[in-house]
């Protein structure tokens, strides 16, 4: 082959590893949008810094008395909290007594754009949970049942170190599907898949060039 005529160029585009399918379906109403957040990062990261300055990461205690290995913060009208008395959405950050920081416009826009890409119109998240994993941190299999309506999807944005996400069934004992999540990937979980058990395997040691020794995950939800 001596020349790159338009036809061979198009064929090449189909097999170029940089041009893999960007949307992967992982459930009846759930999909991974590979690298979807990457073009947004220059606007997303300064907004994240501002949120964390007002509501720093903290390690919370579960009702069972275990300290979570994942550190949490929130922004938006509703933030999620757990302590010995239970877990719930609150309007105020219990650590400051102040309302959770407002959801930055760029967060909201990214969540809406991702939901739309996955086929969910008019997603209006009123809550964004921010999870921080350092190497060794994990999230055990659980269901998210605290939101008022399961009609709205959940949009999750992964940044930094890679994670192995566990996407289970509707009972804890059902075998989980393993989905690797990389820096910039967004997952949209909708409808029937909202009540699936899910978790994250312990994060492996590593340094991410932009995020350092951590994984940060945003989950956008309609809490109320
Ligand atoms: C799948 N966070 O915050 S992504 C959580 O990577 C949580 O930090 C994980 O599970 C993380 O609750 C997983 C988001 C996610 C959220 C809700 C789901 C995935 C989901 C509900 C149903 C199925
Ligand atoms: Fe969850």
UniProtKB/TrEMBL annotation:
Annotated PANTHER family: ALKYLATED DNA REPAIR PROTEIN ALKB-RELATED, NUCLEIC ACID DIOXYGENASE ALKBH1
Keyword terms, alphabetized: Dioxygenase, Iron, Membrane, Metal-binding, Oxidoreductase, Transmembrane, Transmembrane helix
Any Pfam family matching the protein: 2OG-FeII_Oxy_2
Protein name: DNA oxidative demethylase AlkB
Cited Gene3D superfamilies: Alpha-ketoglutarate-dependent dioxygenase AlkB-like
Alphabetical list of InterPro entries matching this protein: Alkb, AlkB-like, AlkB-like_sf, Oxoglu/Fe-dep_dioxygenase_dom
Domain Fe2OG dioxygenase: 124-224
Transmembrane regions: 150-171
Lineage: Bacteria, Pseudomonadati, Pseudomonadota, Gammaproteobacteria, Pseudomonadales
Cofactor or coenzyme needed: Fe(2+)
PROSITE patterns the record matches: FE2OG_OXY (PS51471)
Superkingdom of the organism of origin: Bacteria
């Amino acid at each position: 082959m001596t020349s790159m005529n338009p036809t061979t160029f198009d064929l090449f585009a189909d097999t170029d590893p940089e041009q893999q399918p960007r949307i992967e379906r992982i459930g009846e109403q759930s999909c991974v949008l590979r690298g979807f957040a990457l073009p947004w990062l220059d606007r997303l990261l300064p907004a994240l810094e501002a949120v964390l300055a007002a509501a720093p990461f903290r390690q919370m205690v579960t009702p069972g008395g275990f300290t979570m290995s994942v550190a949490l913060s929130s922004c938006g009208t509703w933030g999620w909290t757990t302590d010995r008395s239970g877990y719930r959405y609150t309007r105020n950050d219990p650590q400051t007594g102040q309302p959770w920081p407002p959801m930055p416009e760029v967060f909201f826009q990214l969540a809406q754009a991702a939901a739309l890409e996955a086929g969910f119109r008019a997603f209006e998240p009123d809550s964004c949970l921010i999870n921080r994993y350092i190497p060794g941190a994990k999230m055990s299999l659980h269901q998210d049942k605290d939101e008022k309506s399961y009609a709205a999807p959940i949009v999750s944005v992964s940044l930094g170190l890679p994670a192995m996400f566990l996407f289970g069934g509707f009972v804890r004992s059902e075998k989980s599907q393993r989905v690797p999540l990389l820096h910039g990937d967004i997952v949209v979980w909708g409808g029937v898949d909202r009540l699936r058990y899910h978790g994250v395997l312990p994060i492996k040691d590593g340094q991410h060039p932009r995020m350092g020794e951590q994984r940060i995950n945003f989950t956008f939800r309609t809490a109320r």
